[in-house]
Specification:
The chain has about 110 residues and is an alpha+beta fold. It has helices at about 15-25, 65-75, 95-105; strands at about 5-10, 30-45, 50-60, 85-90. Helix 1 (about 15-25) packs antiparallel against helix 2. The radius of gyration is 14 Å and the shape is elongated.
Amino acid sequence: MDQPRIVYTTFPDEDVARTVARALVEERLAACVNLIPGMRSVYRWEGAIEEAGEIVGIVKTRAGLIERVEVCIKELHPYDTPVIMHLAVAGADGATLDWLMEQTGAA
């Protein structure tokens, strides 16, 4: 069975976040995307320290879809280099895992 994965990403605003989240779910690349507004990021970009408000996206998917998730995010994201980090899931409730696999077409 394919393993669950979490993809962490950020968005500049709610419109972009919702567009990407809906595309991922509609295309069955994600079972769910949690959008968490109100994050403040401090980072170095092109030699300067920047600060910006962002929205966190937590994508619930599976290992076999990671490459397609990355492509979808990059196609719809306005950043030159969007943050896309995928994390292995050490464990999951059986019902949650079944739901994730069903919603991403792996049932």
